[in-house]
Design brief:
The protein has a domain of about 100 residues: Aspartate Aminotransferase, domain 1 (Alpha-Beta Complex). The strands form three sheets. A seven-stranded mixed β-sheet has the order 2-8-7-6-5-3-4, sandwiched between helices. Strands 9-10-13-12 form a four-stranded antiparallel β-sheet, covered by helices on one side. About 40% of the residues lie in helices and about 10% in strands. It has about 425 residues and is α/β, with parallel strands linked by helices.
Length: about 425
């Protein structure tokens, strides 16, 4: 890629935003026409040179190779600058912008998130994180003693504890089916939930992607099965929102919540909550203050004072996402997955503990180094190679969780696999 092409590419990837940082309103104005800012998607090719330029928009500490996006993502430079500009504006004129000055801009963010997830803006609340969303769902449900809630064994603690605290203490039964680590098909997973359903089942609460080994759960099939029995479906989307293309109406769930700071690359402390229109009547806000009589989904985000620059930073993150292109990111997710698995498959030193089929896994892959303790390997990768990844010990995984976000290049994967081979031989 020549110098001129490189400059043009970088201008496209940031949507021409750098020049408007002084006036954040101009930045948010661009969010009104997301279909007109998809510059990069039309100019980007499949070359590693293009993805190297994407990588350069994410700045990590010197020497760090970051494969831990499933724990916490990073913001590209564009989003950092936008969020800081909003902070400066708020601190320069606090009361104006905290209470009403950014009302239209916040609605632009809601609209852009809704567009990304292919739902109505009246089905999206802008909250803090997945944990809040799961608490909101669990606390809202008007369940009675003896009612049952299904939570499979791979659920994150933020998906189980709210049900334990808000519902189990009322006499609700929590049912914990065991999922296979390496299912051969979606049917294997659907069967686990189907066997757990009884006449007393009221809610199925499930991950879209489990954080343990990156397995994708069949939300669409389970939602269809559940609704035939008048069972609500709540989805923890912390590991799926932004990783690949998602149509929440097509998935069919009643509720879906996600932290935007992972695969959507937003500032920390902002999340997304979806509630299907005809399921919203089940929900009660966690926090109430002035405006609590609002009947729209906005009642779920009525915090009075909150960190609005982070919310508007989410809008900048979604714009960045669109500038690359949702389908382009979707395709890259699976390209990196296949490249990584191709480097690992057939090597007797490694065992992949994530399902291989694309409908069963995406950008989270889990690999075990045979006869090596995963925490020891994790420390060796960090100390000797500057590689940050997550050790997973539950479910007898003894494996490294590798996150393949869009700032990861094939050269980064080569570096990682070479490091793993050296450790395996040591």
């Amino acid at each position: 890629m020549g110098t001129q092409a490189r400059r043009y590419f970088l201008k496209s990837i940031t949507g021409g935003i750098a020049g408007s940082m002084i006036i954040p309103e101009l930045l948010m104005g661009e969010l009104k026409n997301l279909d007109k800012v998809n510059h990069l998607n039309r100019k980007m090719d499949d070359s590693e040179d293009s993805w190297q330029l994407v990588k350069e928009q994410f700045v990590f500490a010197p020497g760090i190779r970051y494969f831990n996006n499933a724990s916490l993502g990073s913001c590209p430079n564009h989003v950092r600058k936008a969020t800081n500009a909003f902070r400066d504006t708020l601190d320069s004129f606090p009361s104006k912008y905290m209470w009403g000055g950014w009302k239209d801009e916040i609605e632009n963010v809601r609209n852009s998130v809704a567009s990304l997830l292919k739902v109505s803006a009246e089905e999206i609340a802008l909250i803090h994180n997945t944990t809040e969303g799961m608490n909101l769902i669990a606390r809202s449900m008007d369940l009675q003693p003896g009612d049952e809630v299904i939570l499979a064994d791979h659920e994150h603690t933020s998906g189980t504890i709210p049900w334990e605290v808000w519902q189990e203490t009322k006499g609700i039964k929590i049912v914990r089916p065991e999922l296979p680590i390496l299912p051969e098909s979606e049917d294997d997973l659907v069967a686990c939930y189907e066997k757990a359903i009884t006449s007393k089942t009221k809610v199925i609460s499930m991950c879209h992607i489990v954080n343990t080994n990156g397995m994708i759960l069949p939300v669409r099939a389970i939602s269809k099965m559940a609704h035939e029995r008048e069972i609500l479906v709540a989805v923890d989307g912390a590991q799926s929102a932004g990783m690949f293309d998602i149509d929440l109406h097509d998935l069919g769930c009643d509720f879906y919540t996600a932290s935007a700071h992972k695969w959507m690359f937003s500032p920390k402390g902002v999340g997304v909550f979806y509630a299907r229109k005809d399921s919203q009547h089940h929900l009660k806000p966690l926090i109430v203050c002035r405006g609590h009589r609002d009947t729209s989904i906005r009642r779920l985000e009525n915090y009075n004072t909150r960190n609005l620059p982070e919310v508007l930073g989410l809008g900048a993150a979604v714009e960045y996402y669109y500038n690359i292109g949702p389908q382009t990111i979707h395709n890259r997710t699976y390209e990196l997955k296949q490249y990584f698995r191709g480097k690992i498959n057939g090597n007797p030193k490694f065992t992949l503990k994530t399902p291989g089929a694309d409908h069963l896994s995406g950008a989270i892959q889990v690999v075990e180094l045979l006869d090596k303790n995963v925490r020891t390997v994790k420390n060796q990768l960090a100390d000797n190679y500057g590689i940050d990844c997550r050790p997973m010990s539950t479910f007898n995984l003894n494996a490294l969780r590798i996150s393949l976000a869009i700032y990861i290049t094939k050269a980064d994967i080569d570096y990682l696999v070479n490091a793993l081979e050296e450790i395996a031989d040591s």
